[in-house]
Amino acid sequence: IKAEYIEAEKLRVVSQLAASVSHEVRNPLTVTRGFIQLLDDPNLDQKKKVEFLHLSLQELDRAQEIITQYLTLAKPINRDHDALLHLPEEIDYITRVMNPFALLHDVEIMTEVHAECQIVGDQQKLRQCLMNLVKNAIEAMENGGKVTLTAGYHEEQVVISIRDTGVGMSKEQISLLGGAYQSTKDTGTGLGLMVVFNSIRAMGGKIEVESSEGVGTVFSLTFPKITEANHENYNKSRIV
Ligand code: ADP
Ligand code: MG
């Protein structure tokens, strides 16, 4: 392939991405602007005021999330960011970060993690993936429930799973996962899983989904087990 062609292709992807981001971010901004305008009314009662403020914040959060997710998609895969990731630490971090959101939804986060479990990958990306999956799990349980995070060895591989007791998905829904803009939520972006599929594959991982409508869903991420040789390499590079 000619260099010119590659440049043209890059430009095409970048401008497409820019167009999507501006389109997606404009909606929540327009909605927020509308609410702020309504707040200007001196006769507005206190209850409405609180509601509009709440909705404005929610829309601003959505704008922020869209930008974060798009930036992740746009970042090239850079194996220089690879490090030895200790899954007990990573899962503990996710639990702490997601707990406030879980409590708000009456959801309990449980963990079952093998103490020695580790993989090689990009820490920021793994964290973002796990956060996206835990967020979806929590959002799937309208009346509260339980999210179980596990990490352990299975048949010479490392498996991380995120299980919920939520609404579940149909076969058709599952087959569409990971494509752009597949959201069933009023304020969804459909970008979360796209990021998860991209990042996990980039780390050499595999994603499996098991779901049953009205029962719940399990997302399993499978990674190659670290060999002695690259284990030593990563131990060294971590010291730097
Ligand atoms: P968003 O959360 O913004 O809708 P995602 O890409 O994170 O976008 O998810 C896409 C869709 O996949 C969701 O709208 C939902 O319909 C479905 N989904 C994802 N995770 C789950 C889950 N744990 N339980 C049920 N449905 C899910
Ligand atoms: Mg999501």
From TrEMBL:
Residue span relative to the full protein: 188 to 427 of 427
Keyword presence, Chloroplast: no
The keyword Transmembrane helix is annotated on this UniProt entry: yes
Domain Histidine kinase: 20-227
Gene Ontology molecular function: ATP binding; phosphorelay sensor kinase activity
Name of the molecule in the record: histidine kinase
EC number: 2.7.13.3
Keyword set, alphabetical order: ATP-binding, Kinase, Membrane, Nucleotide-binding, Phosphoprotein, Transferase, Transmembrane, Transmembrane helix, Two-component regulatory system
Reaction catalysed by this enzyme: ATP + protein L-histidine = ADP + protein N-phospho-L-histidine
Superkingdom as given in the UniProt entry: Bacteria
